[in-house]
Amino acid sequence: MTLDRRRFLRTASATAAGGALLALTEPDGATPALAAPGGFPDYRYVRTLLNPDKLKYNPTGEIIFPCIRGVYDKLPAPLGRYYLYYAPHDAPGGICLAYADSLEGPFTEYPHNPIVSNHWAPHYNVSHVSSPHVMWHAERRELWLYFHGENTVTRLARSKDGIHFTYDKSVLTTEMLPKGTKETSYARVFQHDLPSHCARYIMVFMRNDTSNHRDIGWGWSADGRNWEFDQEPLIDHAEVGASDVSGAHLLTRNGRTYVVYHTDKGSGGDIHITEVGADFSRRNHLGVFYNSTSASPENGRAAAPSFGTDGGVPYMIYEAGERLSGVIAMARG
Question: Distance from first CA to last CA of the chain, Å, rounded?
């Protein structure tokens, strides 16, 4: 896709939402970046960070759902400044770790992956575990890992070093949502005060039911362990013109709260953005946040974004390429 075409899409989306494009400057005197809806940077693909074909632990030839975390100011002796969590999806899956001293990479695969497997006695024995999301719990000074296995259960494990985890509990199951719910997975958790619900944490996740169209669900918690969930979708696939949506992530900017998520390739394969409000009462769909290109490695699909900042420069780490045959890529704002 040409730069002019991307500029048109960004402008049209922001104008339709009543938004304004903000002037953002890239470092080192580079050309100013375009603004995505909500005034976010216009992220642009830079390079591939992880390719399953080059990994020692590669049971299925595919990896998904990256989660990037800066640990240099949190752990006493980290392997690198940044930890990148990811996983194969298909059985047996396995939660994996790579590390680097820069979000630009290169990332080194942890030699003893997976750090969490699909068998963890006496807690579970499932076909696969996948979709790692790690949250820094400042009060406990722990890294909390949320992951699914099977697709009907989201689980929590906790760690002091980001490598060795202690199992905690199941935090979300299909039984906690309306009858007919078949999947509750791909969860990400963020500290976000929600006084109306006496909550300090928010979870966004993918939900599926007998209609076989995936939506984004959400829940809230006072402690990150015990959760309540809205019985209606936060993002309904039909309302954003998609067959399926997944891979949600919470973002805030200029006092506003947003959720970004990806659509299935048949619905564009792009990452979209919706303003939900600080109290999650809004549903202002702003359109395309990141437009995937037809070029490799995206091949028309960008998904499951995670975000970080290094030296004041914003980065997006995400899935690039066809589902279950892509790579983990990096885009810079």
Answer: 17
* Helix %, strand %, coil % of the chain (to 5): 10, 45, 45
| Whole-Å CA distances, 109 to 58, 70, 98, 112, 160 | 11, 16, 4, 9, 20
pLDDT tens digits, one per residue of 7-41: 333 333 332 333 322 222 233 333 334 578 999 99
For the entire predicted model, the pTM comes to 0.90
Supply 116's token pair: 């969490």
The residue whose two tokens read 């697709």 is 151
Which amino acid, one-letter code, is at 203? M
Cite the residue boundaries of each domain of the chain with CATH code 2.115.10.20.
46-259+299-332
DSSP 10-67: HHHHHHHTT-----B--GGGPPPBPB-GGG-B--EEEEEEE-GGG-S--SSS--EEEE
The closest alpha carbon to 297, from 41, 53, 9, 4, belongs to 53
Please report the beta strands in 242-323, taking only residues with DSSP state E, as ranges in sequence order: 245-253, 256-263, 271-275, 284-290, 302-310, 313-320
Pairing of strands 153-159, 119-120: unpaired
Q: Is the CB of residue 216 less than 8 Å from the CB of residue 248? A: yes
Can you tell me the distance from the alpha carbon of 214 to that of 246, in angstroms, rounded to the nearest whole number? Answer: 7
Q: Which fold has domain 46-259+299-332?
A: Tachylectin-2; Chain A (2.115.10)
Phi and psi at 56, nearest 5°, equal: -65, -45
Q: Phi/psi at 121 (nearest 5 deg)? A: -70, 140
The pLDDT value recorded for residue 22 is: 26
Closest of 332, 330, 321, 331 to residue 49, by C-alpha? 330
CA dihedral 322→325→330→333, nearest 10 degrees, is 0
